[in-house]
Here is the input.
Amino acid sequence: MDIHKEIALVTGANRGIGRSFVAELRRRGAEKVYAAARRPETVPAQPGVVPLELDVTDAASVARAARTAADTTLLVNNAGVSTFARLTDGAEEDIRWEMETNYFGPLRMVRAFAPVLAAHGGGAVLNVLSVMAWMAYEHSNSYGASKAAAWALTNGVRYELAGQGTQVTALAMASVDTDMMATIEDGKSDPDTIVRAALDGLQAGSLEVLADGRTARWKARLGEDPALLYPHLAAGGSGRA
Here is the structure.
């Protein structure tokens, strides 16, 4: 996809990676960017950027957005949430919230906007995923489960929307320096760097963008025996993955 003159919609656009997507899309010549957020007043005023009220966990809100932004040709499913919940003892409401936002949110958006994209020749969808879809950790495994579901969703809708000419690209990354990760001490990527890699891949027609070395290494090891991926667990111990 050539982003120049396209009309994009970015979910979770008021901060972090979403805000970087909005800025970079405009820099690359997108004619208009719908900057969608639950609180659109938090979207900074910029030429060519249209704040849009959207809650991806609310089907009625998603339907309104599809009617309002009926000229969209590129959908960026970026909105996400992490509660850092563990699967074995995390609050069930936190786990459900993550799944509602990180899996059902993109599902609702794709279902609502697939006809919109088809009406404009197919367009493209970019789904923001995470290395946590492919690895386990001492916390955040609920988030990982929701992103694993979103990865499967991405693969599925790519196949289903191919007939209408819609490009579906997955973006996967490890830790990024955003508000979501503010309490986590880890090597973090710059969100602008991640977004540039994502849009480079989208423009090149890539179906999956692995935005950093850690993510690429974990994806490459998916076929290995879990005992090799987590040797401390195979030995009966515990610790960091």
